[in-house]
Each structure stands twice: as structure tokens, then as C-alpha cells.
Amino acid sequence: MAPERPDLGPAAEDAHRWETRGGALVIFCLVRTLVSAIRLEEALRIFDGDSGVKLVWVYCNGSRLSHGVREWFISKKISMITLDQAKQGYCDLVITTSERVDLAAFRSKPVIVVPHGLGFHKYVPDAETGEPRLSGLVCPYVLRLGHVTQGLTHPDQERQLAEITEEIVGKTALVGDSSFDLLLDSRGERPAYRAALRVSDHQRLIAIGSTWSKKSLFGKQFELIGRLLGELPCELYRLAIFLHPGVWSWEGEDNIRRWLKPHLESGLMLIGPAEGWHGAVIASDLFIGDNGSTSLYAAMLDKPLLLAGFSDQVVPGTVMAELGRTARHIDPAGDLRRQIEDEIAGHDHTRAAALVERMIARPGQAAPLLRALCYEKAGRPVPDSELSVHAAPVPAPDSGRVHSLRAYGEVVGDREVRVDTYPDAFRDKNRHPGGRLVVELGERHLTQYHNAAVLVDPASVADSATADRLRFLATEKSPNSRIIAVACEGGCEILVRGGERFRVTSDLPVAVSAFACYLLLVAEKELTGRIAVHTSAADAVMTVRRSSALV
Fold first, then answer.
1. Which of 73, 155, 242, 265 could form a disulfide with 400 if both were Cys (CB 3.0 to 4.6 A apart)?
2. Among 18-27, 80-89, 128-137, 411-420, whose mean pLDDT is lowest?
3. Pick from 379, 402, 410: which is nearest to 535 by CA?
């Protein structure tokens, strides 16, 4: 259903005739783009539970990055009115996270503009002239009218903006940064976020964030995503990516998911544009980004950071420019795993505090600062009620299971095996020759079954059913595999081509256990007994014994 309401609701001039609760502060919430909608809804959580406030959401059409806004309203169950309707209605205050809406239309009311990003560090093309403009800054003409207050996160930003327009002087207020505060408040939820992203205690999560534009990570370094999947062993690393809402608006969800389909089938987790990225950053062990605000958030949260696709759109002298100068930049042609491990090992923990000091004057105070400013501009006293503090939403990633693995390993002595696996689709066989194909049931590319050295059925079956399952897989699904493995309680049953069966007891993934057995067979080592298995993530022991013959 459409989110538009046919009337002005609380903004109507005769609202007193129809309302149930009277005397409330009416606030127009102006939205122009998807990112401004998401950020404004986050900032206005300060009014949750405040029955003295009525929010009226206003959709201001006209941006080239507005696609998806109506769908967002529907998903949030928010009704809205159009800008033309709002111009005919009543409000006490206007608030927006988009500096490009028609703020002159509300010159009789106080207007607060909250930045939708972190600071003022990026030049973007003006939609009308095509010339670069500073993202986040209200145009001088509107500032001259005197009714607009530009929100800042640090007093130094007024001096920065005054170099562009003197009209900004005296028209600013500290409002903090709701996203940074959300990150700070939610750090204790890291185990929950890692669990939602299916990251185990012995694994590392690499979070990848990209802004929009051709100079972004996603625009300029798209191949890097596949390279990371192909060079980071599945046992140790998991990857999650989130994209600026502007990417979703312009490119479309269908294209994004189609472009990333092989990546998602290789284990990449895609976080949607509306929520989840805060949890992914908190859960991460390293962040890979560009000149988008999320790179700065990650650095301020004391995350190891690698940059890719850093743009010349960054304003010189800003905190973002300083980050771009001092942080490590990825060498796409180099050893990606080595660069990641070097950054984690050599991470400078003093950087975060220095960045926060320059970027956020009053960390943790965004909610009370903005609420006080809203009530002050509306001429109302601030309620005595205490603001609630909520954790960031739990990520709900979209990803598929890796069904085809390129496995590498070696036998060390008689009783030890080293194993690592990588998504086969992105493993560069020229740079990393050797390895064998391990395929799990569920793989949709049927030729993979014919090429598999090891076939795995990860769905656990009862002991009484393993023989029939192994026989079916060996004859019907993968006639060329040296080993067939079926998960069962406590480990797996494996069938060696030729008819011999073994029972493997282990906490290892079935694919790793089965490939370890494959390596021992190829090396002509005794398969039964206790065998140490080493992966990049952990050491484990598997116990192998002969099982019943397959009849």
C-alpha cells in the first residue's frame, strides 16, 4: 500500500477538531533521499515514548538518489505527506538530514539540519550546475534567511564552513552524531552481532564498507571483493559487505544482488542499506573501506583499517583527509592475507582517541543535545523524562552457503595434516595452483560434481541411513569422487572409492575432515587412529575407525 496519507493529519490547520491527544509539538521531518531517511529516523529516536511530540514525515521528491524512499516508508510503517502538502500545513519545527530540500519554503519556522554523514569532508556534484559542492552544507541563500540552524559535531566545523560562506557564522549548534553514539553504546553486544553473522570465536570477520560514486571501493575496486574471498581461508575468515544507500537507490537492488550473486554463493554476507551495518562494524576484526563515513566510524571505534578506492573528492585539511594520509592503503596486486594480518598485528590503538577528539566534541551526547535543541527552537521546555538507550539492530545478512571449495593441504609425518579451504569460484588457480575440489550437496553448477575429489553431504543423517546415502551419492551424484562423506552425529561417515567405509569423530566441518582423510589416502598413510588436523583457525583432533563394509 502507498505510504501517502490523503490529508495533513496532525499538520492540518483544523487538527484540533480531530486529534485524540492535543497540545503536542508538531515536527515536520523532511526526507529527500534514502540515506537522509535512514539517518533521520535514527536521530529522531530521541522522541520515542514522548507523547508530547507528533512527527509528520514529508517526502521531498527531486533527488537523483531518491529511489527506494517510498519502499522504506512502507517497511517502517510510516505514513507521509508530500512537500506541496506540507507547505499548506502547520508545524512548530522542521528537521531534516538533507541540506538540499526546499528549506526556504519554511522560512516562518525554525529549521534544524542534521548532517546525514560524519562531518563535511566530501565534494559532490551539484544536481543543477554540475559543479562540485560541499556535501552537508546548507546553501548561503537559505542561511541568509536566518531560520536555519546547521548541526555540527565539533566547533571546528564552523570555522571550516565559514571559509566557504560567512553566512554560516552564528547559525550552528552542536548536535553530536547519533551513529557514533549508537556504535559506542552497542559495543557490549559484539557477541550477539557475531552470532547473527555466524562468526565463531576462532574466526575473524572482515567488514567491507563502500560509499557511492565511480571512485568508491564498490565502483573502482569491485574485483577486490572476489580477491578477498579467494585468498582468505574459510576456516579463519568471514566477509560482510554493506553499501551506501545511494548505491542501492541508483543501481537498484536487483543489479546489486545479481552482481554479487557468485560472491554470496561463496560466503560473502550482504547487509541491507537500512540497518545492520553498525552491528557488522562492531563485530568486525578489521574494516576495509574508502572515503565514506563508515571508514571513519570504524577507525574511531578502534578497528584495524585498510583503505581501498580512496577518492580525490575528499576535502583537504579534514579529519577524513588525515585518515586517508595516515591509514594503510591496500595493494590490490599484493598478498591480501598478509596485508590484513600485518594491519591487525600492527594496529595503532592511539589513533581512535585522536580522531574522536577532532571529530566529535561531545561523544555519547547526541541524543540530549539534539532533543534540547529541538525544544529550544520550538519554544518549549525540555521534558524531565530520561532518554532511553538502545542497542543497534542485529544484522540480518543475505548470503549463501559455500558449496564448492578449493582445498589445499599436506601430510606432516604420519599423524598430522594441514588443511585450508577457499571458495572455488574465486580461487585464482594460476596464482595458487594445486588444491582439490571439495563439493557439498546443494551446488547448482552440476559439472562441479563430476570434477570433485571429495563429495560432502553436510545434512546429518541417522547411522542406520548412512550406508544407503553413501551408495546413492557414489553411484548417482559424483561417480568420480575419491571420497564420499555424509554427516552424522559426532562427525561423519566416509566411503573410499572401492567400498571401504570409515567413521570419523571430530568437531571439524565435514568438508575439512573428509579432505584430511583424502590427503592421508593419497599419501598412502594409515587412515585409522587419532589424527591431528591443523587449519588457519585452530588445531583439532579427529579419530578414524573402520566401519561396516558397504554392501
1. 265
2. 128-137
3. 410
For the segment 228-283, what is each residue's pLDDT rounded down to a tens digit?
Answer: 999 999 999 999 999 999 999 999 999 999 999 999 999 999 999 989 999 999 99
Q: Compute the half-sphere exposure of residue 200: CA atoms within 13 Å on the CB side of its CA.
A: 10
C-alpha distances in Å from residue 81, one per residue of 1, 28, 31, 301: 14, 10, 11, 38
pLDDT of residue 551: 44
- Across 411-415, average pLDDT: 88
Cα 332 from chain centre = 21
pLDDT tens across 142-198, in order? 999 999 999 999 999 999 999 999 999 999 999 999 999 999 999 999 999 999 999
Q: Is the pTM of this model over 0.85?
A: yes
- The C-alpha R_g of the chain, in whole angstroms, comes to 28
Separation of alpha carbons 309 and 303, rounded Å: 19
Q: Are 167 and 157 in contact (CB under 8 A)?
A: no
**Cβ proximity of 403 and 442 under 8 Å:** yes
User: Distance between the two ends of the chain, CA-based, in angstroms?
Assistant: 60
Q: Which residue, among 185, 181, 246, 208, has the nearest Cα to 397 in the 3D structure? A: 208
Q: Which helix (H) or strand (E) holds 142?
A: helix 140-145
What is the CB neighbour count within 10 angstroms for residue 416? 14
Q: What sign results for the dihedral spanned by CA atoms 90, 96, 98, 99?
A: positive
Alpha-carbon distance of 11 to 437, in angstroms, equals 64
For residues 411 and 525, is the Cβ–Cβ distance under 8 A?
A: yes
53-59 vs 25-31, strand pairing mode: parallel
pLDDT of residue 299: 98
In terms of C-beta density within 10 A (0-12 exposed, 13-18 middle, 19 or more buried), how is residue 345 classed? exposed
Cα 201 → chain centroid: 20
* Pair 320, 119: CB distance under 8 Å: yes
Q: How is residue 371 written as a grid cell?
A: 532533543
**Residue 478 scores a pLDDT above 90:** no
Task: Tell whether the torsion through CA atoms of 515, 521, 523 and 527 is positive or negative.
Answer: positive
What cell numbers appear for 20 in the block? 485524540
As a whole number of angstroms, the longest Cα–Cα distance in the chain is 88
Q: 131: burial class by Cβ within 10 Å (0-12, 13-18, 19+)?
A: exposed
Under a CB-based contact definition with an 8 Å cutoff, are residues 417 and 409 in contact? yes
Determine phi and psi for 137, rounding to 5 degrees.
-90, 125
Q: How far apart are CA 255 and CA 119, in angstroms?
A: 30
Average pLDDT, the chain: 93
* 315's grid cell: 576535502
Give the model's pLDDT for residue 185.
Answer: 97
Whole-angstrom CA distances from 490 to 339, 485, 524, 550 are: 37, 13, 26, 20
Q: Grid coordinates standing for 448?
A: 562441479
Report whether 36 contacts 65 (CB < 8 A). no
Tell me which residue has cell 571449495.
405
Residue (of 28, 42, 31) closest to 293 by Cα position: 42
